[in-house]
Amino acid sequence: MYRRLTPVSAPIDFTFEGEIVQAQQGESLAAALMAQNLTPFRTTPVSDSPRAAYCMMGICFECLVTIDGQPNRQACMTEVRQGMKVTRQRGAA
Amino acid sequence: MPTKISDLLIIGGGLHGCASALFAAHHGLRVTLLEKDSIGRHASGVNAGGVRRLGRALPEIALSCRAMQMWRQIETIVDDDCGFHSVPQIKVAENDDDLAFLTERVSQLAETGFSHEQMIDRQTLRAFLPNVSEHCVGGLHSDDGYAMPYQTTAAFARKARALGVSIHEAEKPHHIVCENTVWRVETNSGSYRAKSLLNCAGAWGGEIASQIGDHAPVEAIAPLMIVTQRMKPFCTAVVGTARRPLSFKQMANGTVVIGGGRLGHADLDTNRSDISFAELRHTARTASDIFPVMRKAVVQRTWSGIEGRTPDSLPIIGRSLRHENAFHAIGFSAHGFQLGPAIGALMADFIATGTRPPELAPFTLERFDAANIQPERK
Amino acid sequence: MTPNISNVDLCIIGAGPAGMAAALEATNKGLSVALLDEAPRPGGQIYRNVQRTTPALSAILGPDYVHGAQLADQFTAGAAAYLPQAVVWHIEATEPGYRLSYSLNGASHTLDAKSVIAATGALERPMPLPGWTLPGVTTAGALQILLKSSGTVSDDLVLVGHGPLLLLLAAQLVAAGYPPRAIVETVPMAKYWKALPHLPAALRGWRYLLKGAAMLGKIRKAGVPFYGDASDITLEGEAHLTAVSFTAGGKRQTLETSNAGLHHGVVPNQQVSRLMRCAHRWHPSQHAFVPVLDAYGETSNLDFYVAGDGGSIRGARSAEWAGRLTALRIAQKSGIAVPQKDINHFQRKLNEDAAARPFLETLYAPAAQALSPNDNTMICRCEEVTAGQIRRAVADNAPGPNQVKSFLRTGMGPCQGRMCGLAVTALVVEGTGRTPDEVGYYRIRPPLKPLALSELAEYEPAAE
User: Is the Cβ pair A54, C414 closer than 8 Å?
Assistant: First the structure.
């Protein structure tokens, strides 16, 4: 399991699948989801398989989620924002 | 020791070359095919895959209908389904002028005895395309389809080989000469001889033609394509518009392939085709105008290929004006894919029997140059 | 906000050590410089988040990381026009010079530059193992990024693979108080013998070796179990990773865990140099394609350069020297006086830094299992294509990666071949017996990163 070394000092709240998640200001959405062990990020269009962040640097495109209605957003390349509404991407956009 | 003389030497391993090889082999001819890169490397392998009678120039329609019959049983021809799907092709009318234009076309077709294209009204358009933009008023419909271009070309090559055709890749002709009615083609690695020669060299067809003394005006163009990331299914037809360039289809896997008329830059010497986003932005805009759902689409990649276009955008098909035993099938101007199987069958008939099939009559070389009209046939 | 730069002497892509150092050197010489980077802050991957790190994290991450802070601070205080969160999606040769198209805040713009340095670094060598797509499995690099940017670690991590980066991560996790559950190492004994002849040369790069030894010391002292020469590795689970199994020391072992980190080296990120159709060659000891570069980092395209790990894997310090060297060269070519001794200085530093490479590259050559995955292993993660499917396509006369792509859609998914490219080339090499240079790599087309169609519709390239 993933865990933070120190508690959140500058909190940002967003929702994932309708539930409130607390994140640290300045971190990526992928890191925030991993810190809470929220998984999977999406299911694949080809076989509906569960996937989550893999490379954390924008290369692998596994961490695709839907943010405020926009699909195909890379969670690892998106900084957390107060109030963002994130949902799993199920299959194709 | 002199090289063996085959019956037919084909230059060009695209769809037209491979299809001609296959049907020539069915006629019992010994066939050799030379491809300067790899089978299906250029236009035949990378086009949009439209299998379309809809909207064709009138001289091509007979040829296109013949080809359509072959597509519907493509598996019997090449033992491969070629990814062919039978789907409607629709040209969307965006306003009354478009409707008038399309209606006029239908009557032109009727005059020549063709009825495969039908006008559809607002309601019927939405039955086919529920997600089409509100402003679209109707359209023109044909029962056509689409297929996978590389898979198709490779299937024709595979079947041709199985029928005994010798296919040589990475073989670029640098010298072509006719000696005593026998053609000799020199490449870097060899020498090939044949009784007849067929030029299926696509965008390079003009260069090959001039090597044998024919003037075939073929210009290299680079048609541009966009493919998007997968989207939930919203369109099962292949869609164009009455008068704006567009070719739009959503594949079974959800990706959307968008092309239609925009050109990048092609280089015949380096095989390079360059993308122009200044051009593609028009494609993006047109696609979003017709299907508002495309506003959420993401461009996954773009591509282009090297195609040959003629001054009147009709192919050049027929016997050489300088040699009885040389033929051309080039210049398909970005709409040759659907015609491929028929071109193969008809060229093989032509070469094997000496009689030109009537469907090929409109495309002779003569039409381009007054000087071509009184040649000396050797 | 429309950026107000449209024309510069030098455009640098990437704000890692090579890019930042090149920007500093170039602006010092009076060139106008723009640096575009897709992240919100400078540092690339190696110095990720370095300007916002805490003293506690710095202590864990080590002095090499902290060095990056100095460089980043100089860079952000410097004269280069810095555009963070700018995603370059196309580069065209305008002869002379280049036009870059990039996306910033949802709109696309162009930038013209006389010269370009691609400093886009490296990416993890793909490590296809059964189950590698399961949630809970990441690269080792991802775990470093998680640590650097979020101060987050795993409390039951199994590391799989080998290499300096993997050892560094393990040492950092030990320092953080969360030593890995185990290291499942994929170096066959034979490699240790093979690497030995390179050791004397490597001693010239003794600093590297000393660092490596120190890391190993920390890891052993923390009691982290080491399973050497592991093979037949499988990552198991249904919706999430639950166990890592492997054979080591003649025994089949299973470790129950929810997190695994994979690593067997990094390779140059080729996307930009391939897009530009630069000449590449297969680097046998790095086991990767590298762009063909002259002594100053210029590619086969005039005025187009690669600096840093994107040119050859040499690490963060060398990336800086390479960035500076290339910047000086560009200044020199534009008519600015640059003392030859300055250029020689950076070339010498690069050579010194490379001393340990042959040893490390031999010792840490790619894991055999990942290079020749079993048929069921997924190779193209995006399109879900297995090694077996690719082998069948190759046998069926798909002579290269681009034909494999046409048949099977490998490389056509969102990652644009970044994750599967080398693996597909390896399978074509295996199936045809041709060399990697003969087989080649995917043809890379723009956009470099996926681009919103609506953004393309609004795109207005500047008049030429």
Answer: no
